[in-house]
Structure formats: C-alpha cells, structure tokens
Amino acid sequence: MDSLISDTPKRRRAGGRRGHQDRAGHAVIEQMPFRQPFNPDRPTEPLGPEGVAAIHDGVLHILSEIGIEFLNPDAVAHLKRAGCRVDGTNVRMDRDFVTEMVARAPAEFTITPRNPDRALRIGGGWMAFGNVSSPPNYWDLKTGKQTGSWARYVDFLKLSQYFNCIHFVGGYPVEPVDVHAAIRHLDCLQAKLELTDKVVHAYSLGRERVEDVMEMVRIAGGLSHAEFEAQPRMYTNINSVSPLKHDFPMLEGAMIHARRGQPVIVTPFTLAGAMAPVTMAGAVTLSLAEALAAIALLQFIAPGAPVAIGTFTSNVDMKSGAPAFGTPEYIRATQMTGQMARFYGLPLRSSGVCAANVPDAQATWETSASLWAAIQSGSNMVYHAAGWLEGGLIASPEKFVMDCEMLQQIQRYFDPALWATGPGDLALDAVAEVGSGGHYFGCQHTQDRYQQAFYAPFLSDWRNYEAWDAAGGVWTAERAHALSRRIIDGFEAPPLAEDRREALAEFVAQRKAEGGAPTDF
Amino acid sequence: MDSLISDTPKRRRAGGRRGHQDRAGHAVIEQMPFRQPFNPDRPTEPLGPEGVAAIHDGVLHILSEIGIEFLNPDAVAHLKRAGCRVDGTNVRMDRDFVTEMVARAPAEFTITPRNPDRALRIGGGWMAFGNVSSPPNYWDLKTGKQTGSWARYVDFLKLSQYFNCIHFVGGYPVEPVDVHAAIRHLDCLQAKLELTDKVVHAYSLGRERVEDVMEMVRIAGGLSHAEFEAQPRMYTNINSVSPLKHDFPMLEGAMIHARRGQPVIVTPFTLAGAMAPVTMAGAVTLSLAEALAAIALLQFIAPGAPVAIGTFTSNVDMKSGAPAFGTPEYIRATQMTGQMARFYGLPLRSSGVCAANVPDAQATWETSASLWAAIQSGSNMVYHAAGWLEGGLIASPEKFVMDCEMLQQIQRYFDPALWATGPGDLALDAVAEVGSGGHYFGCQHTQDRYQQAFYAPFLSDWRNYEAWDAAGGVWTAERAHALSRRIIDGFEAPPLAEDRREALAEFVAQRKAEGGAPTDF
C-alpha cells in the first residue's frame, strides 16, 4: 500500500502555520492542548493491610506451589537456569525469587515516540489514555455493524491523532480484515507512523512482526539502533491465557521487547466465574500471579526492563456467560489491583470498557464507571479509553468522540486551579463588593477570570430544551456522529520528514517483497 | 381530591402475600431489597489542611464582617437577642458565636417515616437517595415536553415507591400545575403518604403549608403530637437566595421544623460566576457562610436541632449564563464542601444532576459524575438522584429508571463482599483444582457462589450485538420507557391502616373547606 499522504507536505500547508490551524481539521472543535494529566487524588483503597498481605500471600502461593505454564521453550530454559522448579511447561518460582525479580523493575519510565513532545511518563501519578484497540468490527449510526476494514482503520487513526486527550495509539483501533495478515502489520504501522506522532505499540504476534514494528518505529524516529535501545520508544502488551498460562508468541514478543529496553505490559484476561475464580479477590490474585510470573521472567533476562501490571479483571453475566464491563465488581477489582501494583512498586494499566452494543446511556454509565475505576486505582495507562463497544468487539467513531469528551473532563478535573484557596480564589473582596443585591457576572473578579474559569465541553449541549429542540433536538450520539465525520474529513497529518517517510516506504516495500510475516501462528 | 386508592386493599390483595409478590407491579424487575447503603470509601479530599483553614477563615470573615440578610423579622430578633450585630436586615455574627452554635448540632440523626422499616440514618458513612424534586415540566419519549400535571405527579410517586434504591421521597417529583396552589400541598402530601411509605419532606413555603404537612405526617404515622416531636419524622430543605440572603418563608419553615425537632437542610444555590464568585473555592466559601448562618440561627432557637449542610454549588456556561451540572468544577466543589462538612461535624446533602435535555449519553455522564461526587464527598443525602433533566426543569420517567440502575450499582459497589479476602474469597484451592486446562464455570467454588457473586442489572442489555439486534435493537432510553410504564401500570400501594387513611382524608377535606393555604407568597 502506498504512502497515505501522496501530495507534498509543502503544498498542503501553503497557508502557513496560521492557515493550518484555522483549517477545518484542527478548528472543528476547541480542545484542550496535548498535555499528560497528573492524577492528584489519593487512590480509593478497599483493602486493609491484612487484605493486601492476604492477596500477596495468595500470589506467592500460586507461583510457588501451583505454578504457571510457560508455552515457550526459551522462557522455560531461562527460568530453569534461574533455579525455578520446572516440570514440562509448568514452572514454579520460589517466593524470594519472585520478590527479588519484581524489585528489579522501575517504578516509572518514559516512552518517547517520534515526536518527542508526545513523550509519556508511565508511573506515579501520571496518566495516559489510549484509543480502543483490536475490535474486529465497526459500527456507526449510518452503517450499522460492519467487519473492520482498512478505510475504517485509517479513520480511527485520524481521530486518535486529532484528539489531544488521546496520548498513545495502542493496538489497531479496528482490525483491517481486508488487509492480508502477512503484511497487515506493515501497512498498519506505516499508516500509524505517518498519520500520528504519538506513542505506538507492537502486537506480540511472532518475532517477525515485533522486529518489523521496532524497525519501523526506529526509522520513523530517525534513530540509530543504539538510540532506539537507549530508552523506551514504543511498547507491547501481552495477555496470559488464563488460567495460569503464557503462550509462545506473547512470551517471545515480551522477551524481545525487554531485551531491547522497550516496555512490556502484562495483562491477564481474568473474567471472574469463567477463566478465574468467581470471587473478586480470587480473580485479582490469579491475575497478579500470572502478571508477576511474566514480569519475573523478563526481569531475570533483562534486569530493570520497564514493565507494568495490566488488569482486565471483570465478571461475566452468570445467566449467559457473556463478559460484563464497568460493573461494581469491575471497579473494586481495579481498585484492588491498583493497591497491589503500588505494593509491588509497578505502574498499572487498566481500561475504558463497556458491554453495551451502541453508544447510549448504558455504554456511558459502564464506560464512566471504568474511567472512574482507572482514576481511583491510580492507573497509569488506560487502554481502550475511546471508541470501545460490545465488550471490545466493536469500534465506533461516535463512542470515540463521546469518550474524548469524558476524557477532557477528567483532565480538567485534575487541574489544581479547581481547589486553589489563595486570596484571589476565596474572593472575599468580590463577596463584599457584590453584596446581597447584585450578581457576579459583571464584577471585576469575574471579568478577570471568566474565560478560563470553567471547562467548556465540545459535545455537551447546554442550551435549554426549547433552544435545543428548535435546533433539531439532536441526541448526543448523533452530535458525535456529525463531529466524527467533520474531524476525519478535515484531518491533516502531523509533520514527518520526507527522508523518514521514504525510508519507511522502502522498508515496507522490501518486507512485502520478502513475503511479510508468517501467518501460521 | 378523593383518596387515590378507592377499592379496598383487601380485594386488591386477594392473592395473599405470595400472589401480591408475583403480580406485575412487584415482579417487573428483580431488584435489590430496601436497605440503606453505607459508604466505606475514604472521601476524596482535594484540600490540604491549609485549604480547609483558609475556607473556614473565609466563612467566618463573611459572617462576621460582611453579614447575611435575614428577611424575616423573627429571625432578626432572635439573632439580636443572641448578641449579633444587626443593621436592618443585615446580621453579622461573631466568629465564636458561629463556632459555638454549629457545635450544638448533632453529627448524625435518624428520620423515621410512617413505615419504621424505612427509617434513615443521616450522617457518618450512611447514604440515602431521593427522587427528583420540583421540576415544572415533564418529558417522556412518547409525549415530549409537557407542563407538569397531577397524573404525572402520581406516576412518579409510584416509581419512587417501587424502587428500593430510592430511600426518601423529597419534594414533588414534578410540579402538578393543574392543582391549585392553595390546596396543592394537601393533595400532594395525601397522595404521597398513601402511595409511599418512605421519608417525606415539607416545602418551606409559608407557615400554613408547613404545619399542614407536619400534621399529615403525624396522622399517617399514627402518632401523638408528643411522639411526632420526640424524633425526626420528616424534614425540610431551604435554599438561600444567593448571594448572602435568606428569605422570609424559608426561614419561617426552617424555624418551625427546628423547634419541633424535625431536620432542616440548608442548601444555598451558589452558581459560580452568577450568584457566587467565579472561583470554586469562592463559591464554596459563600455557600458555607450562607448555610452556617441559618444553622447558627436554628441552633440558637433550638439547641441540638438536626440540621445538614446542603451543597448545590456548580458553574454556569460562561457563553450563555446557563447553569451546568456534573462538571469537573461541580465535582471538586462537592468534594470540598464534603471536607468542610466533616470539619464542622455536620451531615452533607448533595444531588444527582445534569444539564442534558433528554436521557442520552450526555445526561448519563453528567449524572454519573454528580453521583460519584456524592460518593467521593461523603454525602449523606442525595437529592434528585433519579429522574432529573434540563438542570431540574424536566422530570423524566426514562431518566428515573436509568438513574435507579446506576443507584443499584452504587449500592452493590458498597458491598464488602467485593473486596473480602478470606480463604474462600482467595479461592486458592479452586485455582489448584481448575489448574491451567479448565475453566471455572463448573467448579464447586463457583457453583456454591454464582447466584450471589455478581450484580445483575435490570436495565443493561448484556447480550451480544446480534442477539440484541434480533430482539429489536432497543437503546437504553427506550428500554427504560417500556419499563417505567410497566412499573406504573402494575403498581400496588404499600399498606396503610384504614383509620389513618380516613383521618388523612378528613384532615384534607377540612383544610380545603377552610380554603387551604394563602397563595400570595
């Protein structure tokens, strides 16, 4: 597939910086600037010290007595060398080994993408939100449900780049099923690196794919091999096959990343009542055991490699077995996992998720609950934070735009100006001046501050009913649909030096000529 | 207006208790039992100790140096007698007087309605959620916006009684504009006391109305005058006229309540940028000053009278001046007010609010934000928790049902079972038993627990897209509409002894014959 941007950047930006800013693509909405949010809230911690100790003990019990299956001979060989008890693919780790390995991991690290202004700190109070990743299907208000396609994939890249509240571009926001699996990663990453300048990731689906993506990230960043490996430039996310299993390609990809200094998030998919115990503490304990097992391996082969605990613990609908998201059980599991991540001194990844099929009220209360869970748990990375529907089987542009409205509100919620108590904030002089007979619209204290005083939503309609009705009575999802089209249609790609663009295209052409990556995984 | 339940209770309940339970009215959904939730979370506290001290100092500065207008001669006379500095209607209170009076108020109290099983504890970690109150208009998916009417008022009483997650029936859930204002309180309270058995309130709109409502609550509870006054049986909520004013009828109603031992919530309506400073700390400080002014008065005339601080601090849309709700500013203001309420040792009331005109995604993210603000602030009473739209100008049955789904989820979120870490919760034996090859659906640990393990929503649709689509592809608001009709149509009133019902009707008939209450306020 050719470069997505065929006309020269010079021609397209003839209006200069000012003209560029004024064009539709960037002026569709007034949004907050790109800035990584810092979460100042004390986490919500349901567990007492004895609860933390009980879960920690349970994790070590699973790792030392029950063991984890490592379906990767290299990994098993490493762990055997480390002194673990190996029985076929089953590996049991001594408690001290786990503790020692986990202690090697850094509590915080920084990922620097091709545009260094988009670097992300992962750890502490820092948060980063990413687009929906990996749905096989697409849905919008006009088309209904469709199989994911290249055209839709590109649409979502544009939304992901456009919104400043999206900090990283994780997996494919929708699976472009019409692109052959052997070359999909090449086309996808080429488009992603051209249309976005934010942190990207590699799916750990075999050595060739991982190494191709790493090379493309290196080329797009204009980096030497040494510069690439000197610090995190991208990341991968691996899922265990719960219960108690890590599979071959995920472990392979994780080890390649760790050896080259690129972060690995380990996210078990522990649905309570299905792949994990029906009790939330049980599901959290299993999830942590699976995560720490992989982290111990990575710290053994690459001490100090950047890693994070991922959580995807939720419950199923016990009537149907269908996964549920954003439930009360989900919130508490995420909070508990956050407590344990702090106990282990590791960053945490959670998600913005829902089970709803369309971007309606249910989708919103489920997603809102999962975003609050991310805040309350002290999550550092929030996957799927915009665009996810149907338990991750659908990506929707309306939902993407709606979620971005919620994400901007979260960023504003973190602004210390909202609880500042200096003399100008308490406004006692203004209270005396206005007295009991007037109002504050006109006073100097208000005039000096009103433009920045309050968050201005881009999607909410705050008109009264009559004005809203006279303007067509448009519900949120329809407003989001129109906005998504305007953003996509007016999109302009971020700058990318011509030599890097050409080098990327050359690499992709060469790898395609070689047949791409094997598809027999 | 005649008694709303004209056929005899005996005939209507011919099926006996079991038949009663099985009928549509109570079997429309499976809901959680009526039980007051206890919030175990540590509140979110944006203010440091210096912030709390600064706001407290600002409150005392306003009360002692700027003063509050008390537009009620009785109130002014009391405060003069208390040693306050009076200048016409302006009253300035010494710092020590305020502190001393506020310290007289109890940190917690219990309100016992006509059904003592519905008693509510107000204070500490206890929470209680109430229906939307006072919108002049009604909206549903089929009718669109209409002026509030008696028929709709009765509909909402049925919803308020039906849902166990609604703990008190505050103001009129929609204003029955077709009932004359002179007798509206009589008809409204008669219906409320017949169709519900939960805590009710009186609008403080003149002595006659307040005393009529008190008498009706006393009659419905089968209480002597002494029994009525011995403990809280109902409550009132008063709003200051911000900035810096308390008006005549609100103060009158508050004083009547306090003298008779009935709780008073004082809720200033401080919209930052309009009736309050544009800065959130400034708006919170003004709100607290207005609240404590009234509380000091009430504690002076009735030491130890149950009172609560109400917060309604939000911001306006600076483009239009329209009020906004559930905003980032709203959340932080509510959290700060919660910190201050704990500092003063008083219960807190907040709200479930939004600016949206229809029950869509915007309505849900705004309402969800305000409900989380209630949790995080340690609120004890949550007004308008179900049914509110358009900044309180519309009551909607769809929104009512949707909000109740969220309220049930909050109740479940508070359930300590979700973070229990006993041996059965950690489930290490089950993890060993299932191993890496199986799943947890069938294991004994799951079988023993699955029926109670997870919250089962009544409104969420967790089917996959295809099943949902085949069943009509119904969005949340439409599902809520259908459910609201079924609940209203199948409603059965709670038991009320015939002699009390008759006494109520007699009282109403007599007061109507006397002409009701004056309407020249």
Automatic annotation (TrEMBL), chains A, B:
If you read the UniProt record, what top EC class would you report for this enzyme, in one word? Answer: transferase
The segments labelled Disordered in the record are 1-47
Q: Name one Pfam family in it.
A: MTTB
Which Gene3D superfamilies does the protein's record reference?
Answer: Trimethylamine methyltransferase-like
UniProt keywords (A-Z) are:
Methyltransferase, Transferase
Name the Enzyme Commission number(s) assigned to this protein. 2.1.1.-
* GO biological processes: methylation
* GO molecular function list: methyltransferase activity
Xref: InterPro entries: MttB-like_sf, MTTB_MeTrfase
Q: Which family does it belong to?
A: Belongs to the trimethylamine methyltransferase family.
Name of the protein: Methyltransferase
What species was this sequence derived from?
Jannaschia ovalis
The record lists the lineage as: Bacteria, Pseudomonadati, Pseudomonadota, Alphaproteobacteria, Rhodobacterales
